[in-house]
Design a protein that fits this description.
Blueprint lengths: L1 H33 L9 H20 L9 H25 L5 H29 L1
Helix pairs in contact: 1-2, 1-4, 2-4, 3-4
Length: 132
């Protein structure tokens, strides 16, 4: 039960924060630089697959081992590193292979990915700890 609560708390926080960032920050930036590559309508299936898997990995590697730990700083740092790895892989691969990819997209999305990952994992852990 603890694991389910931890997963759901982390996932809900991640989804809410990321939806705001995608709409207000990332979509306009990506439209400016690679608008012709974007699909007209959001594809829900691939997004759900990413979120379910990404949050599961974050919980398994970062927050679950620290569920009954004492500090949040280590969790925040570990999650930030995984966010840098995940979002950096995407961004630097695209920068290396796609003509219209721009450094502003790399920097913005990397900062976003690090922030949303570290914040949602840490907040999800805090919520789960409050409920136990």
């Amino acid at each position: 039960m603890d694991l389910i609560v931890l997963y759901l708390a982390t996932a809900m926080i991640f989804l809410v924060i990321d939806a705001i960032g995608l709409k207000l920050l990332l979509r306009p930036l990506f439209e400016r630089h690679v608008g012709e590559l974007l699909v007209p309508s959001f594809r829900l299936g691939p997004a759900i697959g990413f979120y379910l898997f990404y949050v599961a990995v974050l919980v398994a590697l970062v927050s679950w081992p620290e569920l009954y730990g004492t500090t949040y700083s280590g969790v925040f740092l570990q999650a930030a590193l995984l966010g840098a790895l995940a979002y950096g892989t995407y961004e630097f691969t695209n920068l290396a292979t796609l003509k219209p990819w721009h450094w502003s997209m790399v920097v913005t999305d990397m900062i976003w990915g690090i922030s949303v990952t570290a914040t949602s994992v840490t907040a999800g852990l805090a919520v789960a700890r409050m409920l136990f």
